[in-house]
Fold this sequence. Notes:
By secondary structure, the protein is an alpha/beta fold. The chain has 5 domains: 2-29 and 105-202 and 294-320, no CATH class; 37-104, no CATH class; 327-476, Rossmann fold (3-Layer(aba) Sandwich); 493-588, Beta Barrel (Elongation Factor Tu (Ef-tu), domain 3); 602-732, Rossmann fold (3-Layer(aba) Sandwich). Helices cover 38% and strands 20% of the residues. The chain contains 22 helices and 24 strands. Helix 2 (14-27) runs antiparallel to helix 5 (103-114) and helix 7 (165-195) packs across helix 10 (294-324). The protein is elongated. Mean pLDDT is 89; it is low at 159-163.
Amino acid sequence: MLRRLHSLPGLFAALLLLVIATSGAILSLNPALERAGAIVPPRGAVNVADVAQRALRAYPGVEQIERLPSGAVLVYFTQGGNSGADLINPLTGDLVSSYAPSPFFSWLSDLHRAFLWDDRGRAIAGIGALLMALMCFSGLFLLASRSGGWRKLFGPIRSAGNNATSPRLHAELARAAALGLLLSSLTGIWMSAIRFELLPEAQEMEAEFRQSTEGAEAVPIASSPALQEVDLTDLHQLTFPFRDDPSDVYSLRTHQGSGYVDRGSGEWLSYADYGSGATLEAFIMELHTGEAYWWLGLIMGLAALTAPVLTVTGVLIWWQRRRSMPRLQNNSPKHVADTILLVGSETNATWGFAKSLLDGMSAAGKHVHVAPMNDLADHYPKASRLLILTSTYGDGDAPASANQFLQKLEKLATSPAMSWAVLGFGDRQFGNFCAFADLVTEKLKQRDWPQILETTYIDRQSGPSFEQWGTVLGAAIDTPLSLHYKPLPRATKSLILIARKTYGEQVNAHTCILRFKPAKPGRSLPAFAAGDLVGILPPNCDAPRFYSLASMNKDGALEICVRRQEDGLCSNFLYNMKIGESANVFIQKNTRFKPCRGKTPIILIGAGTGIGPLIGFIRANTKHRTMHLYWGGRLAESDFLYQEELQSYIDDKRLSQLHTAFSRSSKPEYVQNKLLDDADQICTLLTENAQILVCGGRQMATDVATAINTILAPLSLDVATLKKAGRYLEDTY
Length: 733
């Protein structure tokens, strides 16, 4: 609900907010530009009487003196029957420059306030400010939720999800600009509410008008006691009396109040403070425009500049989220559903099973609400059943659409209870097969809710196993179910193999490096970066296999490292491919496994084909940040992947150091041994906030984590702490 409350206003008002924010950002420059050209004496340096005397001497036809919000002093005068306005030096009365309002900024101000459309435009601008405030508040709550609480709101933001480049940029900019955008929107709302009488306008207290004493000789303005006691910094406007009217008076407006000064005695005839309400309204307007606080105007302008980027990234996030979910025609609203079906998926494959279950249960007369696990609600008024379908990411971690589920489950009310069942998806060749499904099961058991079925596991997206589970589930809930699983269609591109290099035959570790280009001339590669995943559909198989990318699309080819598995359908297909043969592929973003931005050192650790994304990171290191690679193979003469290329990166400084370990050499070594040998150097790098990225087999990653924990012990750190800070990332298989 909170995410919808945040995203819907932005989607409906994207263009509106773009105009308001962009024009507001440009307008914020005007106070700073005016301030840069103004001569502003410090408080106490000069009073209004002195400035008036100097202006009168330089401009005998002076009619009014005004101190602009920027601090500049402006004189309005009549000379030779013509009216004019000049900026003057308040210390001397000398001309600084002639003055005329900027036509561009005047037009832009009208665009910003009213879309060049009188009161109708002002109403639209007010609605835009309201939408902006709504998105700011909801966005801050979402950020707090993502960060783990309000106290961690300004802590490091970790990438999450498969398409997290836009979400991370969106979150970082929003966090930086939220207060400025909130201040702009809330003050804009206030001003609109006053304009359209939704709030009462504060009445400004006015001084009683009194005429000068007739016949009294006028004192020199520099000798006026009333004007001498007003500092220039407090002046808003001083209007001179008509020369031909001896009863006319000086009219003075300051930032605190207004009144009339006798031209004869120079004393106050009357004075009144504006009142707290009017002063507050003036202050709010000054905050919104930044005219009286040029530095604040620049800050708010910078905040406003983020709005176009936030709008674009927000639309991209919405589109990516919408595209990642299948169209569910029978999805019931959560407030009427009797069954809640939550999905945890990293590569979106689990959604195909969720759709099949939804269709089957809907056909049986059930009202099912399907949503990502992260969208677990606080309350389901009519639901009595909770079904969870989830995959596992990496070393037992939550997949992208479920990484907030356990936190929300802890806060969920204990009643009414729902019966539940968990179905896990994974691949049994991985050591932590369905570990997250087991963790969810454990947490649900702690709530003492009735369990419908023991947790079941689906290996390698097996359709028959899923359909069999559906039959058992139907019997358990006394609702016969007939499930028919069809994988969700994926939009693929056909790529042809243009180069291959084989390794490892001597040590029975048959490995190849494959490079692909589009099958049709003139076609471009899909967008991808090193570390992203390519999904490959082997012939006569609907279930894709994923491989880490060793290249970026700017390199001109899609490159992967593949080790042939004896029973691997896809690995055998790829290993046996010949030059010119094609494969159908699609890209899956994987921003969970990318070097952090900045100049902090990077420690890359891998073994075997785990070097794939690591070589891609090194290739992209053209700015020569410190980067160390620890990599393990079997035998240097047989499977030293990328040997020549790595040496070239040492030479051109993209790679700072290379450390290799070979388990079948005359002196067997493993990558974790190399790490322990270099413990002092690694400690030094970690004290410089180095980030560690590990890629390869699960057992290797476990051994590496043990070695790193040993190295970290003197620093009172461990791998778990680094993981929480986003400084230890794993991509394992």
